[in-house]
Amino acid sequence: MLWGVPARGRKMQEKKMDRPMGNGNAGITATTAVDPPTGADAGFAGAELSRRHFVLGAGSALVLGSTVGLGACGGGSDVDRQPFGYGVASGDPLADRVIIWTRANRLTEAVQLRWEVALDASFSNMVTSGTVTADPAHDSTVKVDVTGLQPATSYFYRFKNGSVLSETGRTRTLPAGSVEQVKLGVFSCAAYPIGQFHVYNHASNRSDLDAALMLGDYIYESGLSDAEQLVARALGREVDPQGELHTLTDYRLLYQRYHTDADLRGLRRNVPLIGVWDDHEIVNDIWRDGAGGHDPATEGSFAARRAAAVQAYHEWMPTRTGADPLRIYRSFDFGNLLSLHMLDTRVIGRDAPTNRDPYLAGLADDPSRQLLGTEQEAWLAARLQGSGATWQVLGQQVVFGGMRIPLSVYDDFSEDAINAFLAALDTPDASRTAAQRALVAQPRIGYELTNWDGFPAARERVLAMAHATDKNLVVLSGDSHNAWAHDLRDTAGHRIGVEFATPSVTSTGLEIKHPDVGRQFLADSFVRMVPDLTYADTARRGYVAVTFTPTSVTGEFVFVSSVFVNSYSATVGPALQAQAGPAGRELTRLQPSA
Ligand SMILES: [Fe+2]
């Protein structure tokens, strides 16, 4: 995605504009300064400070030095030398089944592995077992759909190659019937080279998540800018291949590299995943028939590249792959409490992107414009109609709620422009100057047109589905790298539900995109400029844990102190809550922002 306002006159669809750290070297300076870091960076050892010192925006520092070892890339790592070094994972849990996953390293030919599932970690109370073939043709990864399980039950699982054992994973089936509580962790945008996966570490150390929703940008295919290379080297998180991915081998190598990370493996080992891709698992700004990040004239077949990326995704993710690997939209029922509908807003049905001028000319309002595609949209309507669960939850990629800002701010995202608009807004109509009246009356435009703001008719149709069946809608979103919470209303003003948009695991947010705008001012301004946006954090990395009960939904944001140093602390909160029922679909803050 391209998350951010383009500079005036810059082409929106320019290739490779979106990077996990933003474009170019914005906000990043390399210096030989030896100033001691403060605040979040005070954990650096003094010896490291004499080395080249990289400043990433305000208040975050990296040190390039020998004390941070350069990690070996996937194929040459310690992880790769161990028979099951990439660990184990589980995913796509249902009430009676779950996928379990592993990879058998360094195979030269297919081998049979044994898998075991038990009720206890010592495997004395075995439930089921079998064999599965690990084949280099599938990157030596295996997936087993373990069936015949009991609902709401924790299981332990492992694999064996002869006498060699994998580590033991823990998973849990979905509940059935009357359910009192479900808690989901929501994650997106994990760029391995530019930050430590502390977010995954924090989540994997808690025992209360029923599932981890991976909403995409689980990897980044786009290669590294010079600045990102420097950060990766400083962190010992360089990748191979360093450039943009195109072939099946490229994509597989990057999955290997990402899974050398112990924190990522820890989350996969401890919590069942439910994942969908965003664009960067395949190529930046992908849509149904192409991608902003793919030029067929110089990069070959789009379909071949997409097929390679999709194959690698399913090889490495514990998904229940169907007959059509491109179709990843699917539902998960947590008894009578919630139905989770995982969507694909990127690949299978998205129409061509739009940008500023066509948007202002009304192109985005075309009622035939699709984000889900007709087939997926009909499927979702049927699922919402057919589910009697209290909460209807959409797990999907891009921000759903309106983020429409004044055109003057879109064109000049500066504190001066924002202050001018807000001053006009705060002035009583009778006292406004002509210029202020013009500011208040000017058109608005979605801050990021690759999200649902670029597809308003499609969004309205989803809201109408929920309204027609009087369902409590909760939308969970990723992609933006920042934390947001929305009240969701249709154009008639009906309260339909709420949205929690998760911050990124490592990818930089608006603090890098708009380095000249104060961080708190930026977040506060968004909330003031955008109707129904109730919360924003535009500078911190983290995740959101969402708790559902029969009467309420609560989104609790968790932020880590830094992804640029090896240790971290976590800040839990704020939490925002809404109630079930038409009168309760409005967020209130349970605790102040930390
Ligand atoms: Fe991202």
From TrEMBL:
Q: Which InterPro entries match?
A: Metallo-depent_PP-like (IPR029052), PhoD-like_MPP (IPR018946), PhoD-like_sf (IPR038607), PhoD_N (IPR032093), Phospholipid_Metab_Enz (IPR052900)
PhoD-like phosphatase metallophosphatase domain ranges (all copies): 184-556
Q: One Pfam family, please name it.
A: PhoD_N
**Where are the stretches annotated Disordered?**
1-23
Cross-referenced SUPFAM superfamilies:
Metallo-dependent phosphatases
Domain Phospholipase D N-terminal positions: 87-173
Q: What is this protein called?
A: Alkaline phosphatase
Source organism (scientific name): Ramlibacter pinisoli
